[in-house]
Every structure is written in structure tokens, then in C-alpha cells.
Amino acid sequence: MANYDLIVIGSGPGGYVCAIRAAQLGLKVACVEGRETLGGTCLNVGCIPSKALLHASHQLHEAEHNFAAMGLKGKAPTVDWKQMLTYKDDVIGQNTKGIEFLFKKNKVDWIKGWATIPAAGKVKVGDDTHEAKNIVIASGSEAASLPGVEVDEKTIVTSTGALTLGKVPKTMVVIGAGVIGLELGSVYARLGAEVTVIEYLDVITPGMDNEVQRSFKRILEKQGLTFVMGAAVQSATTKGGKATVTYKLKKDDSEATIEADAVLLATGRKPYTQGLGLDDLGVKMTDRGQIATDGHYATSVAGVYAIGDAIEGPMLAHKAEDEGMAVAEILAGQAGHVNYGVIPGVIYTHPEVANVGKTEEQLKEDGRAYKAGKFAFMGNGRAKANFAADGFVKILADKETDRILGAHIIGPAAGDLIHEICVAMEFGAAAEDLARTCHAHPTYSEAVREAALACGDGPIHS
Ligand code: NAI
Q1: Nearest residue by C-alpha to atom 41 in ligand 1
Q2: Which helix (H) or strand (E) holds 326?
Q3: What is the pLDDT of residues 165-189, one digit of tens each?
Q4: Ligand 1 center to residue 128 CA distance, Å?
Q5: How far is the CA of 289 from the centre of ligand 1 (A)?
Q6: Beta-carbon contacts of residue 435 (< 8 Å; ≥ 6 apart)
Q7: Which domains are present in the chain?
Q8: Pick the catalytic residue: 65, 296, 419, 441?
Q9: pTM: predicted TM-score of the whole model, two decimal places
Q10: 441 counts as catalytic
């Protein structure tokens, strides 16, 4: 068996990025992946396929709602679900093959199969035991289960089954108003399903800026989604291809049931660490089932590191990627580092929702004096031309120093716009720095500049 400097377990965005970066830095690297294709949850059954369906269903929404007003007459297209799934699978294929190409280009060996770690420095795959100076675990996460909810991935599905439903359901219940529930819920709503979202809390997308939460919920309701808030789902069962969901309302403990053609369980994900032999190896876990690591991704066992969804922090592909790069650099003798204060979060609905840094609620809790500069897309010419004037940009800056502390955007291309604020934050910029930067007209990014202006003397267009 070959001896490696590094074996990475898992080829999702954390693992494959780590493997490629380590190889670029001169290490001899292998990556173990048990799936048929590289790319992990994100490329195969997560971020990428869901974006394909979001894109296709958004095109339909545009045709149904905005084409006629633009002078584009004729019947709106109908949904060929089989073809939409083929398109989605094609997008997956292009991306997973892309990683295969990058592995070859960077001389990363793909070891096919599921790995266990019998001892530090050893990785067993099938009958072969490979040796490595260091091991990085990037095994990702899986959908968390909910007691009483009987997932069969046909009628009652997780995000994985939601990408391969036999047909577009007439009615759908989504359990959990988090990122997955709202992204996939809005796909099916646009394709014609009547979607009811049942959420335990009194707000959607917990942890997000309250003003964004309220605005986001109003916009989704306008798009036809129905919300049952403050309701704990007790059970979901199937009979004859129909599902019945029972929930209890927190306000009066009353129980109610709702029937649907499909149910999406989206109440969170948990680290996927089974089968690696971590118990026997003596790897310490946190009380939330994550692999415990120090500030340099080292586990309690020398030579074994962990990154991504398997460790603490937000379960985001780009957080895993950054950790993959950082640990590769550390293992190559460099100073790898991730700035956890500047990790953007994006929800790819339409409009998109994006955030970085602190929320107003967190700043209040910290007792920090801040100012909020806000600008509505209604005042942005490009957004109006594109039927995308719902939403706003909000920038939070220190009251004294004007340094940007956070930003919250709901609106067109929010997931792209947020990055100019991320860069500004990385450079410790003040809102005035953004406000004094020339922004091309007409672009959505002018709304970011206007929000920065609103932190000072005020925006021009509102
Ligand atoms: P989530 O944690 O975002 O939301 C789960 C929701 O379910 C919460 O609002 C919670 O209050 C609710 N809930 C929990 N138990 C419930 C019950 N019994 N009845 C009703 N509601 C209940 O989880 P989600 O959406 O499953 O996403 C999982 C992970 O995947 C997250 O960490 C997310 O960041 C990540 N992800 C990120 C994406 C992105 O960045 N665009 C896309 C998809 C997933």
C-alpha cells in the first residue's frame, strides 16, 4: 500500500478542498469516498441539485407572473418533471466529474470505499490498510430524525428524497422553517404544490436578524406558502401513498392533523461520524455529538484532524471549505486560519436572503452602541426593472468608529451582494469606506452603497 502524507476521509466541499490544497502545497494525498461519485452531500444531494431546481422553478414563476407585463405573450410553460430531474442530474454530473478531474490534475488519489481508522496513521478501506502521517476526517452530516416521523424517502422525505419525488405533489407539508424547508418548500410551491410549513418557534429561520425574518415570512406568504407557527410536530405517517401529520400548538396544547401528498422533514442535520471507529480510537466528542477539536482542527488523538459539519460551527459548505484549506496549510507547515466572524449565510429562495456578522439582536445583547443603515430595493432602478424590488439591505456599524459589524440583505442576488460587505469586514472597513466606493449604475449593488450611506449622512434614493 502507498504511504501518504495525508489521507482525507470524505470528498464533500471540506474534504475535496482540503485534499487539493494539501496536494498543491506538496503533500502526497489520498481522499477516501464511499459514494459512487465525489462531492459529498453538497454536490450529490444538497446545495447543487437544489439550486438547479430553484433555478428551473424560478424561471416558471417569472413566466407565469412577469412575462405578460414585459410584453412577452403566450402560454406559460408547463412542468415536465422528468426532464427537470434529468437537468438536475446533469448538473450534478458536471460538478462531480469536475472534482474527479481536479483530483487527477492535482495528483490526489481517490480511494473508493468506506473508511475506518483502526489506529492513528492507519486508514482501512475494504481489505486494504493505508498508512498516512496525518488523517483529516471530513465525513459531513446527515438529516436528523424526529421521533414519530416515519421517513421512507418516498412520501415522507428528507432533503435527499425531496430531490427525487415521483411527481410534483398537489399538497406538501414541510416540517421546520429553516434553510432546507424554505428553499425546497418554495421550489414545490412554484411548481404548483400547496405548501404548508409547520414551525416549532414563533419565527422562521431562527438566529437570523428579526427584521429580515418578518419581511421574509411576508414575502413567502405572498408567494403562497402557508405557515403554522408555534407548533411541534408529533408524528407523520403514511397510508396508501398519503401522509398524515399531527402537531401540537404551543399556545393551548391543542392537537391538529393535516394530510398531504408529501412531507419534507427539515428540522436540522447532525454530524455523520458512524462507522469510522472513533470510539475505539478514543476520539473525544462534544456533548452535541460533534468531533471535539482544538483551534487547529486537531482531535484528541495525535495525527487525526476533523473539519466541516462533523465539528462545531455552522453546517455550511463554505465554512467546511475554508477549514479544509486551513488544515491543509497547517499540515504543510503554514499558518492556516479561518475568520469565523465573517462567514456569510445565504438562503437561495427568491428573493435571496444573506447575512454576515452580527444581528441587531446580538449587538443589543452585547450592549454595543451601533447604528443601522437601511435601504429598500424599491429605490433601486435595476431591481424595479427586473420585478425584484422586494426587500432591503441593512448595514450595522459601530456608533463611534463606523466599523461595519454586520449586514443583512433580503432581495435580488443577496447571496452575491453580501460578499462586498464580507471583504469590507475582512479589511476592518467603516461604512463610510463602502459609501465612498464608486458603484456602477444601474446595479443591485448600489443598494449596498445606499445602505452604507444611510449609516452616515443618508441615502440619496429614499
Ligand atoms: P435548520 O436548523 O435550519 O431549521 C430547522 C427548523 O426546524 C428550525 O426552525 C426548528 O425550530 C424547526 N423544528 C425543529 N423541531 C421541530 C418540530 N418538532 N416541529 C416543527 N418544527 C421544528 O435545519 P435545516 O433547514 O434542516 O438545515 C440543516 C442544516 O443544513 C443547517 O445547518 C443549514 O445551515 C444547512 N443548510 C444550508 C443551506 C444554505 O446555506 N443555503 C441549504 C441547506 C442546508
Answers
A1: 347
A2: helix 317-331
A3: 999 999 999 999 999 999 999 999 9
A4: 38
A5: 17
A6: 449, 452, 453, 455, 456
A7: 3-142+270-338 (3.50.50.60), 156-267 (3.50.50.60), 343-454 (3.30.390.30)
A8: 441
A9: 0.97
A10: yes
